[in-house]
Structures are given as structure tokens and as C-alpha cells.
Amino acid sequence: MDCDIELEIDAGSARGEYTVRVVRAPAGGHASGMFTLDVEGILERLPQLEATVLASAVAARRTMPVAEMAVREVGQQLFQALFTREVYGTYRASLGAAQHAGQQLRVVLRLSAPELATMPWETLFDPETETYLCQTEPLLRHVPAPDYNLNPLDVAPPLRILGIVASPRDLPSLDVTAEKDHLSRALAGPVSEGRVELVWAKSGTWDDVQSMLLAGPWHVVHFVGHGDYDSRTDEGRIALVGPDGRAAMVRAVRLMALLSVAAPRPRLVVLNSCSSGEMGQSDLFSGTASALVRSGIGAVAAMQFAISDYAAIAFAHGFYAAIANGRTVDEAARVGRISVMASPDGTLEWVTPALYVRGGTTQLFTLTGTPRAPASVESSTTAGTSGGQATGPAHASSPASPPGTGQDHAVPAQAAPVPTTQPQANAGQANAGQAMKRAQLRALYVQASAELRARRLEQAVELFDDLLTLEPGYRDATALRDKARHRLELDRTYREALKAEETEDWLAAADGFAAVQDDPGFPDAAVRRQDCERRQRISDLQGELRYHSSLGSWEAVLDVSAELATVDPDAADPDGLATAARAEIQKAKSKEPPPVETAEVPPASDDETPHGSYTAADLPVRPPRKKAPARANPAPSLQTGSALHPAPSVTKPEAPAGVPPSNAVLRGSKPGGSAPVPAGGSAPPLRTPLLWGGVALIVAGGLGACFAVYFLWLDDNYWYESGGDGSLRIVYGLVAPLGYLLLAVAGLPDRTTMARVVMAGVVVSGALFGLSGLTETVDPTTVIAGFVHAGFGLWAGILALRSRRSEPFGWLLLWPTVTVPLVWVQDKGVFLESWYRTHAYFVLIQLLVLCASGIGFAVAARRLRASEKGQEHEQAG
């Protein structure tokens, strides 16, 4: 053939390295290259590939797009390794030259390295044109052997085929009748036209096969059975039937000796792997095929995977029809592949046949004369319908007769067909169908399990769905599918957490990583969660620091900066705000006069100096008290008293020179008119954060009450069940905790460390209670968080009631928190049984209490502001 591109592939200098060289090409040149190929990795994938190819014959939804992925991946890997840049250029140029000559380009692979014989080269996939090579051009494997330029064998039709079925009893059983019937149906057309004659051996024993070979001539030997590859001898084997009915493994060299008894020697051998055996015991004929070609057989067509009944019939029909019409064996193999592609739609079993050729020609036979009608219609019918052995002409000789010429069709007498009743034939076909179904189900199961193990979860779910559609309840497929779906959901959660981490949504990222951290498939989830929580803490503290800086609370800025330094020293001075706060404090200290130490004045007796006339020397000495740094711009909000207990008006006493004012005014006072800061953390709350904290609680309670009313009486479309529950999560998980956080910033319940810890517990437990969500069932996390929130609220209220300046705020802190467990009171007094939108009456009550508390804080902040203005007016006067 003039349009051949022959590629010689040999082992390189290192393991896994190979060389490729263009021996001949229509475009000319001798391009070469070197590539690496993971042969062991592809060999490990062969069982999965076999399952994928066989499963593609199953008519099930969505199977094909998933199944073809594995075949395409392997084919593209082989193509990109084989066709290096220079070799690919020659290949593309040769395609153009062949098309210009009006011929097809035949791709010949000369496989010099033995391990390459087991590679599925029939899957070669060109990613540029998105086509498989063997679908558009003939593809064959050339086995290195002495090229003696054997001339094609002249054959006067019919082309005689000897069929052999071997089914040892210790290997997966074959339905012998069905296997014979499959090939007989495939050849029914050529047999009826007199182009082909099919004769079956009585059994698969060595003696029977030898007797049939002696009674030739035979042009083709078609073997159906089991085979494997012996890695110890680096040689393929087939399984004949021994005297005891068990498998007799015959090495390729012994099989070649057996075939050599035929005169003339068969030019073509077809090795067809069975499809009714249990999957997992692959039928590897690659070693046997190459060994037969190397020993002298002109061409061998082998099935590198198990093949379905339909594909075997379709390939045999197209392959033998092309041979009988004088086509070359490589073109016949391509025609057979095209026959397999006919149906079912999208099957991949055209990959299964592999063609091995010896010598420089693929024209095995030259058909001379015209086909003649079969000598016996009864014989042809018997061979075509019953799967038995077709007899030759009526004058066939006995087994002892010597082989005749091409027109002498001597057949042993014992080869006469045994009539088969119709019920037996139907039973055989039914058994064959059941066996085929079992094999296909097993193939789908193996492929789906492989995709699950490789964590290609979407493909695994689709394949398990297909399997369960065909056979509900198949083995543990339901459990494995659910496992794949669960892993798929975890993967989706993990990806969303990664995306949230990239967008610096630390809270969402931490929640996502926390959901998957217990799965061993996400070993970094726990570390990522901790890092996100740390970053969220840093973000919260930096926000608080910026808030204090905007109010000029420089001491608070430094407190937050110190806490930030314990979390991340590099984040303790965002935008230089902590440095600016230190500068402001130092600036205020430089302008501040020396502090005057004061002390409590004992009650004056009648003979002592009247009130207000003491000198510094008359006052008892007390240990100096640590004073807070003065602010550069002292806020007028730090005044004595509270909104509910306004401080009495203070006027400047007119004291003599050198006499300090009354200690009631001077104790802890600072220049600039700032209010005193009493000991024990009992300073009045800051007005601005107090006001905004109340506003946040008003919004949370009022908005939540509106949602509750809507859920109870207006929600006809069940909006709450389809995403409306997010409204209450926002109220309880974000808005209300923000209000409590602002109250803590304002100084409630007092300014002690314990009070800050208690308020932090109120904020965190409230956020956890809200974000956990109020679902139809009672979630333990939500219930526990609700009671913890109530406990911290009760604690905060008690601390406020014990503080003289914060006592009025104690009840406002206590009621909205201790009433949170009311949400678990259900209709008719049931407690902690379930939670549902129609039982949200107590939620409505709790939200109204929350709103009322916020109103109380807002009113208190307004009164505090009015009191401060009055004091400023009096001081100015």
C-alpha cells in the first residue's frame, strides 16, 4: 500500500523512555523523537478501561458521556506520547498526501518493545481533530518478524472457517450453543451466498482440534474461549479443554505447533474473548496474538477486552464480509469496527478488537472464481441456526481421508450436526441473555466503584444511578451511591469554604471547614478553620479599634491593640491607629498640670475648719492611685451620674487662694471638664454606643416580630420553609449580638474584666443560637446556645444591678436574654419537642421583649445626653 505511515517504537535508554521513528510515510522524511510513557499506570487502568468499554454497551441514561472520558483520557495520553512534534508534523502531512491521492492513510505500529504490545493503541485520540485514529484510518500492529513477502493465498470460494469453542469446567462457563449461534448468525449472509463456510469442532480438546485441522483445508481459525498472559514466561496462553474437563493452558508456541498440522497453514486467526464470564478475570490475548504472528501466522485479530454478544456479532459480520469480498485484513478490521459502532448509540466496543500483522502485505487471500451455492441447504441452515457443526458436501470423506485441494471440503463424519430442539435453543438464548446482563451490570459496578475510589464523584453518582435503573437493589450499589453523594456534598461545602476564604469571608469559611474537618478526605480543614477563626477575631478587634479611634477613646484603642498583639502582633496597629493613640495620650499628658492627691475628709467637728477650707497639708495622706491617661479631646459624655440618676449641679466654690476645692469635686477629676472615673469600674456608660446598641436591639426585635407575625398569620406560600428562616437567623445571629456588643463597648454592666467576659459570652452565645437556625426539628446546638445565652444574660443583669451607676440597666439587660428559652415552648405547653412556624407565638413574645429593651436603652441614652448638656451649661455659667 502506497499510503502507509509506519512508526517504529522501541525502548529507550532509561526506564519508561521510548523512541519513535517514522520508517515510511507518504509525505517522506524520517522524523523521530523520544517520549516517556507510564506503561505501568496504563496497565493498572486496563481493568477500569475494560469495564468502561463493556459498560458502554448498556442502554442506560447518561452512561456514554461519562464512560467515554476514561477511553479518551488513555487515548489522548498515548497519542500525545507517540506523536511528538516532528512525528506529528509528518503524520499531518501524510494525511494530506493520502487525501490528495484519493486514498486512506494506514497507520502501522511496529512495536519492538514487548511491554507495548498490551497497550490499547486502538484508543489513540487526536485532540486537535477530536477523532479516534482507528475510526478514520486503518490501524494495525506490525509484529517484528522475518519478512518473507508471502504471496496472498488463492482461494476459490467459499472461504473456510474452523470454529472452536473451549469451555473448561473450572473456568467461568460459556454457553457453547449461544457462542456458536452468535457467529453463525453473523455469517448467515456470506454463507447463504456461498462466500463463506463455517464448520465447528466437536469440542475444545486438543485431539478434536487436531482432527479438524487435519481434515482441512482451513483458511481461518476462529477461537472462542479464555486466555491470559503468563508474566513468568512473557507469553500469552489460551485455555483448551483437558481430558478431565478442566482447563489445559496452551502456550502460544504450542498453539502454533498445533495449527501447523493444517495444510495449508491458516493465514488468519481470530481470538474472541468470552463475554459471559465474571468480570475481573480479563481475557488478555495480546501476548498470544503477537506470538502467533511472530511464529508464522499472517494476521491475528484479538479481543483485548471482554466483548458483549452484540459487539462480537457485529464485528464478525463486518470483518468476515469484508474478507469474503477481497478486502485487506486491516481494512476488514476497520469495517468490523464500523459495524460495532452502528448500535447501540455511543458504544465504545469498537476499541476492543486489535489487529496484529506479519510481513509487508495485508492482502491475505485472493478470491478466484465466483461463489457457488452451498452444497447442502440443510447443512447451511443447521450451521446457521443451531450453532452446531456444518457438514461439507455429500461426498465428504472419512477422518482418515487425506486433505484435499481447495475444492475438497472433507469434513469428519463425527462433525455432523446434532439436531437441537427449539425449546433448547430458546433456553440457551435466555441463559446467554442473563449472562450478558450480569456481565454488563458487573461492568457498570466496577466502573462506578473505580470512579468513586478516584474521587470523580459526579461520574460515580451517574454510573450508580444507571446501574440501579437497570437493576434496583444491586449488591451495595445504593449504599455506595449515597456515600458518593455525601462525599460530593462535602466537596461542594469545602469548595465553597475555599471561595469564602479567598473573599475573606472568614465566618462563612470557618463554618464550611468545620463541617468537613472530621472527614479524612480533608486533612487541612481543621487547620484552615482555626486560621479563619483567628482572622475573624483579628477583623473584629480591628473594627472595634477603629470604632474607639473614631470616638477619640485613646485608652480603649491601646487596650484593643494589646489584645490584638496576643492574636497577631503584625495586626496590632492597623493603619497606625495605635501609634496615633499613644501620641495623643502623650500630648495630653504634656499639657496636664501636676495631679493633686485628694483624700476622703472625715466629718468635721465644731472646732475644726469649716467645710471647703482645708489645705493640702490638713488632708490625710493616701497611697497614690494609678490614673488613666488623659484624652487629648475629652468626650463630654463621661459625667458623674447616669441617665436615670443625674448628677447634682456643681458650682465652682470660691475658695481662698491656695485652698483646693471640695474633694467631692476634685477626686479623680481631670482638666478639660471631663467627668471623674470612679474606682471599681463603676463609671457611667458611654452615651453613643449605648444609643446605637439600643437601636440595634430595636431593629432586631421589631423586624423579627414582623417576620413572626407574617409566619403565623400571613405566610400562605410557606416562604419560611423555602428560605425565609434566614430572616430569623439574621435577627438572632447578627443584629441582636451587634446590639449587645455595642452595649459592652458602652461599659455595661460595668468596666471590670469579669463584666467584659460575661458580655462576650452574651454576644457569642447569642450569635451561635441565631446562626444555628430555628428548623423544623430541635437542633441540640441551638438549644444549648439558647440556654447559655440566657445564663450569661442573667449574670450580666445581676452585675449591673449590683453596680450603683448601672443598676437601672440591669433589668434591661436581663429580660431580653433570659426570655430566649421561651422559643422552645410550643403550642399547648409542649417544651423542646419541635419548632415550627405555626407555633411561633412565644418567639413573637420574646422579640417584643427584645424590642422594648432596645427602646429602654435608647431612651436612657437620650436622657444621659440631656443631663450632660445641662451640666455643661451650668459649668459654663
Automatic annotation (TrEMBL):
Residue ranges of every copy of the CHAT domain listed in the record: 73-344
InterPro entries referenced in this protein's UniProt entry, alphabetically: CHAT_dom
Keyword match Transmembrane: yes
Descriptive protein name: CHAT domain-containing protein
Compositional bias segments (type: Low complexity): 367-384, 391-412, 668-681
Keywords assigned by UniProt, alphabetized: Membrane, Transmembrane, Transmembrane helix
Pfam family, one: CHAT
Membrane-spanning residues: 690-714, 726-745, 757-775, 781-801, 838-861
Region (Disordered): 367-412, 585-681
Organism in which the protein naturally occurs: Arthrobacter bambusae
Organism domain of life: Bacteria
Biased composition (Basic and acidic residues): 585-594
